[in-house]
């Protein structure tokens, strides 16, 4: 039961790409009830750079997508024999390399891999993006859209980005490193809202998203410093955009290791367990990463 977990957790239980997070490197993500007054929700989004909405979506709608996802992936052998797809239980007999997490960046070995089994798994994970239960029912969920329309004041003009990312984070593989989303949205205005929606319950050690405390100040700093440098070099907007991407690791990440990043900037990572139905909204400069997945589920 994710909500029954103790906090603060023992430091050993909080692993990221570059090892455990120390006790003073973690804090708890602030949860918000979606029924709070809009003004309060807006203020929290501005203050924190994110808004963690507990139980925004109907749990059964999220679990439906989860079930469809694992039914689709099932022929790859990812699931433990005799378990229900909706439970998404990893078969521990499997070699993790055959089930790489997609989207964590090619340079760290999580790109499209060579092995036949891995290729099948990745192909199915990519195919999921095109399925109606995902791209229509899940991504365009009216409750999510309505909340964003109201929160931003965009109303009827609210547009979904057509390219969405259905990430997975499988046991024994590397999770996505430290980044802010504007890096991946380079050709758009930095006014978009990212919705990170866990497709099921995620325990603290289950590999959920983590946020650097007030990380958006760093994200903005990186962005501003670089834009200034580009201007000084006389670059055009287009040249600056391309150069930006060269300024990052080849994967578009600020760093591979969250623990070392937190030490360098003396900031905490904000962590939490998630339940199906939860949604986190964040700004394009919010700095995030993932916990390592230490659980089979
Ligand atoms: O791994 C995830 O679920 C999140 C990935 C992410 O933050 C991103 O693609 O920008
Ligand atoms: Fe992201």
TrEMBL record:
It comes from the Eukaryota. It holds the Pfam family PhyH. Transmembrane segments: none annotated. PANTHER family: EXPRESSED PROTEIN, PHYTANOYL-COA HYDROXYLASE. This is Clavaminate synthase-like protein. It comes from Mytilinidion resinicola.
